[in-house]
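Researcher: Please predict.
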Amino acid sequence: MASSTVAFVATCLLVLIPVFSSGESCVKPKVDHETYTTTEKVTSIDTVFLVEFNLQCSNGVKNPFLYADVSGRQLPVSRSGDNQYQVSWVEERKDAPPGQYEVKLFDEEGFSALRKAQRAEGDVSQVPALTTIAFTHKGVSKGPFISSELLAIIVSALLWYAAYTAKQRIIT
């Protein structure tokens, strides 16, 4: 009798655990995002990309686990609050030209399908993303035409010349 009860409980657990542990997928996601990219050439040697976004699912799923794909490179997505996420990466300046960038977001099922397609060397563009965030990187500025140090030297030289010529007029 006791062994049949244990077997019944074990069978129920084996059947019900996958049902209760399976995650729900986000349906019709709505994303509000802000982006930051490095624009100053003088202060950095690499270009930093930072995308912060809020994700709202029409079916009410809260805080799903997300993964990102940027130009064929998979990146972790960190959660910074309720339905608030962030993904960031760094590239050398020569590898980050100005232009349009896309961050494809995947839930666990989509990311699994993406990795499976990569392992099979299949067409990863056929794997649907949960949503895509597109933004423009304007590139890095070259800085001012004349550096501030050179401008200070020129102004100093002009002031010295003006003072010297004024002194010469006073003496003569």
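Model: Residues 8 and 14 are 10 Å apart (CA to CA).
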